[in-house]
Amino acid sequence: MPTASDISIHGASASPRRRDLLVLLPSLTLALFLAPVVAGLLGTWLPAFGWLPSLARTDIGLAPWRELFAAPELPGSLRLTLTTGLAASVASLVIALAFCASAHGTGLFRAVERVLAPVLAVPHAAVALGLAFLLAPSGWLIRLLSPWGAGWVVPPDIATVQDRWGLALTIGLIAKEVPYMLLMAIAAGAQAEAKAGLAVARSLGYGKTTAWLKAVLPRVYPQIRMPVYAVLAYSLSVVDMALILAPTTPPPLAPLLLRWFNDPDLDRRFAAAAGATLQLLIVVGAIAVCRAAEMAAGRLGRAWIASGRRGGSGLPQHLLASIAMIGLLLLVVGSIVVNVIWSFADRWRFPSVLPTAWTFVTWQHHGPALRDLAITTFVVAAAAAGVSLALALGCLENEQRRGLHVSSRGLWLIYTPLLVPQLSFMFGLQVLLVACRIDGSWVGLIWSHLVFVLPYVFLSLADPYRSLDDRYARSALCLGASPNRVFWRVKLPMLRQPVAVAFAVGFAASAGQYLPTLFAGGGRYDTLTTEAISLAAGADRRVIGVHVLAQALLPLLPFAMALALRAHRRPAVAGRSRT
Amino acid sequence: MTQGLSLEGVYVGVGEQVLIPPLTMTVGPGEVATVMGPSGSGKSSLLAYVCGTLEPGLRAGGRVLLDGVEVTSLPPERRRIGILFQDDLLFPHMTVAENLAFGLPAERRPRAERRAVIDSALAEAGLAGFGDRDPATLSGGQRARIALLRTLLSQPRALLLDEPFGKLDAALRARFRVTVLDHARRQGLPTLLVTHDADDAAAAAGPVILIGPAIEPPQGALNSIPGAVKPVW
Questions:
Q1: Class for domain A19-47+83-341+349-565, per CATH?
Q2: To the nearest whole percent, how much of chain B has pLDDT over 70?
Q3: Are the C-beta atoms of A320 and A98 separated by less than 8 Å?
């Protein structure tokens, strides 16, 4: 029998035992996903200055740094990291914003919006492996032109993948980051009441693109600032895509460090730890530069806004941005399609556009191994996403019952695992797991994935959860339901689709992880992603095709299920329910 | 050539349902025509169609002419039809002066001249010295006046009013209504007002078009309006 006190929406005097559990949840959550980062960073910084008792080394000094800077590969490696990382980040942001600014409200924009989620769910490694074949000298793009167009009867002798400029890596990063930036910008635009602002600006005589840039972007940018930094951090420290698409002599910094961490000569780990710290400094520096650039752009933007210039029709920008967007999406889709074809190909010689003979043998032959890999991937991803979902729901519910608001500092905390380069704390995390005696166990593996899954799950769930019209919960409470009953019977059913999407996002984030599996799994666990990347170096294209396809399909399953939920009644969310 | 804002057979619907049947009318310069109807009757969609910002989900058609020139195929920004909404929609990322500068055409230069125009507009509206304020620090009435100034500074050739008085309290409402209608008449703007408030229609003192199936003509109000037209339904 509900008591009057249960009706309080802040739960101030709700049943004390339950409340206490919920109140503890945010701290528990923070500890679960930040402790590995903090411990991981410390466990990397100490060896960077020569201190690693487990290797019987306690002579603190700068020797690891001297070794790092003496490495002949370092200058080239740093140059490659900076050029590819910065070029990919800037291009991704510019393309995504240009498309938003010039194409909003068009049929193309809505079509692109619909394919974003599945495109995002495809792991980086799968896209990289597909691109490697699309762009390779013997790849699909050149086959489409040969021999009738370009006259090649044998593959041309030019490096188009693993090229020394890192162009293939840059293209791969852009193809994967633009959909992410676009999704973030669309979500932020919905919150910033972009439509009303646009209508005003258009009625005041502003062209479509200029109206978006002046009336919407200044309100959207603060909300996508963190995702922009996350893209910057990722592009400057990427490992999985770089192993497939970047040159190897020298590789960018992150793959170089991974090579050192795995060196049979254990002493290499000290220079690697110093390098991992340098990697962190590079990302921190890049974010600081980005912040400064934002402020400069903001100042110029204010003057531009006050000038009253209306801008033209925006048609050239629209065409350019649309072509870039369609091109990138085609690259992603094409990189999957080409692997589908390879996985069924028997004979496929240059320059045939399609195989001349087909077979199921590759699938039959690799089926059993694939099943084991898929099971491992599924178990880890489902566990990490499930735990993350429970924690995120608990934190959000606690926040609502106690009337809390997440500060901008809280947002930084949530983004921390996405901003700190993985390699900068993976080694230290491994040390922590060894100390807890859970290295190479399921618990350690799932925990290491949780660190990266939780932020995505939380961020994907937070907006729908907070914008659920609170009058539903209030009226349920006034009908005598306890806060817990309201949670299970009102909020959760109404939010079932956003909840399913959050799970799918977390599942996909876990399925795509490479380094955590490598470091925390202690070499005992292979997922579809680790296997696909290890195949990249020289395996049969048919085998790669089979693995890439499995890797791309598995994360799509939860998305398909979340999409199926949409067929039912739409959840009423504030803003949609009012006109 | 017909002066003012003309609608020729303008209709709005959703799917099979007709919200506003074909409507033909001309609003002369300085005249204020009123479209009255209950909420959900498609009044706002009518204005969105006239200024070119109708949502894709809605079906609408007909010709919109300004001083005899058809503007229906022009994008919203080239129609030069100003609109005021129930919400003031001042941009929260700009100061009051920046909001007004946003409305002022770029041809007004240099910067000192722009600032002078804005300052004198603010002074005229009794808001001198408000230029550097954040819109969020203003009262509802002040914000409404800034929104009006922003629209007028953009030198529109016609004015649409989408229940712009709806959210103001009674005392403020009457005053702001007088301000808006005065400006529209003095600048000779053909003005189309949509509202569900009979007092608004009376103050507009122009032709009234009633839409929606179940509306009773507001007795006193309608009879006192010279040139009132018959309900179209």
A1: mainly alpha
A2: 90
A3: yes
